[in-house]
């Protein structure tokens, strides 16, 4: 009986390993589970240290350090182009496309100092993760209460100037794995106009060559982040916001379309720490590679 049990216990990890290597959907599930576990574990372990400092944007540095290793686990190579455009001295508003939770990997790659994201209020209720977000100064809005959200944004505009704060907004307002961008919410643009600060648009390339929840596929691959030229808002007033929103969206949509046809060759792949990138590069569009970036 004991021998049987021992054999069973030995076979279980072996079977799991075999399944992991042979079944891309199983690999996908485990990789997504690990992503979430990593976030919960680091938030739980590190938030008490951040709590000594109290709520502060400086805690973003801890949050960033905790999330930076993720790309190595998954063998995701990040290529960034135009990073010098983020080296503006004062406050500014970043607007970025939002595909999935994986965006966190791109965010930590490029997010400048003293920058906080605007996030949905629901994140506050994620236990220690919500606590970590609150401690790091993340700004929460209730998307279902427009007036309250607008008030938070107005308040943020004055804080930005006073405290030299940068703000990161996902103007689509929700995750969008689709091939084109959703219409933009106007909050980020009102914020920039109210604070009279520049807007820096950022586009993260589509993940479909290595990540697809629909197909349950998560392999290694390359992600390109393009920082577009900043847009000045000095002298603009609230009546200019619709046009401003549309012109920034247009520039981002064009960049996204261009990046969607870019190909990431096999030699660009990193070896993931979490096993082989089984499943290959299915579904990746073929074309010219984006060589403008510097890899780091
Ligand atoms: C060294 C340091 C390193 C640090 C490293 C750090 C690493 C960081 C890593 C990890 C952090 C965690 C990351 C978490 C990420 C989470 C992401 C999310 O949760 S995304 C969901 C939440 N985001 C949004 O929703 C977008 C913002 N939303 C908006 O801007 C909306 O506009 C909103 C909510 C304010 C209203 O939404 P509406 O659905 O009503 O739509 P509308 O069309 O925009 O507005 C309706 C009307 O209100 C006006 N309006 C909107 N905002 C206004 C404003 N601020 N002032 C005046 N009017 C405004 C508009 O002009 C429009 O009016 P008219 O049609 O033009 O007449
Ligand atoms: C201060 C100490 C820090 C310790 C280490 C912290 C470790 C990580 C902590 C927090 C990371 C943030 C996790 C939040 C990730 C969620 C991002 C996301 O994708 O949310 C979805 C939301 O946008 C849109 O929602 P819907 O598509 O409308 O549903």
TrEMBL record:
GO terms for cellular component: endoplasmic reticulum; membrane. It is an enzyme of class 2 (transferase). The chain crosses the membrane at residues 28-52, 123-141. It catalyses: 1-(9Z-octadecenoyl)-sn-glycero-3-phosphate + (9Z)-octadecenoyl-CoA = 1,2-di-(9Z-octadecenoyl)-sn-glycero-3-phosphate + CoA; 1-(9Z-octadecenoyl)-sn-glycero-3-phosphate + hexadecanoyl-CoA = 1-(9Z)-octadecenoyl-2-hexadecanoyl-sn-glycero-3-phosphate + CoA; 1-eicosanoyl-sn-glycero-3-phosphate + (9Z)-octadecenoyl-CoA = 1-eicosanoyl-2-(9Z)-octadecenoyl-sn-glycero-3-phosphate + CoA; a 1-acyl-sn-glycero-3-phosphate + an acyl-CoA = a 1,2-diacyl-sn-glycero-3-phosphate + CoA. Pfam families: Acyltransferase. InterPro entries: AGP_acyltrans, Plipid/glycerol_acylTrfase. One of its GO terms (biological process) is phosphatidic acid biosynthetic process. Coiled coil: none annotated. SMART domains: PlsC (SM00563). Pathway: Phospholipid metabolism; CDP-diacylglycerol biosynthesis; CDP-diacylglycerol from sn-glycerol 3-phosphate: step 2/3. Residues 261-271 have a biased composition (Basic and acidic residues). GO terms for molecular function: 1-acylglycerol-3-phosphate O-acyltransferase activity. Residues 253-296 are annotated as: Disordered. Its EC number is 2.3.1.51. Keywords: Acyltransferase, Lipid biosynthesis, Lipid metabolism, Membrane, Phospholipid biosynthesis, Phospholipid metabolism, Transferase, Transmembrane, Transmembrane helix. Belongs to the 1-acyl-sn-glycerol-3-phosphate acyltransferase family. Converts 1-acyl-sn-glycerol-3-phosphate (lysophosphatidic acid or LPA) into 1,2-diacyl-sn-glycerol-3-phosphate (phosphatidic acid or PA) by incorporating an acyl moiety at the sn-2 position of the glycerol backbone. The HXXXXD motif is essential for acyltransferase activity and may constitute the binding site for the phosphate moiety of the glycerol-3-phosphate. NCBIfam families: AGP_acyltrn. PANTHER family: 1-ACYL-SN-GLYCEROL-3-PHOSPHATE ACYLTRANSFERASE (PTHR10434), 1-ACYL-SN-GLYCEROL-3-PHOSPHATE ACYLTRANSFERASE ALPHA (PTHR10434:SF65). This is 1-acyl-sn-glycerol-3-phosphate acyltransferase. It comes from Corvus moneduloides.
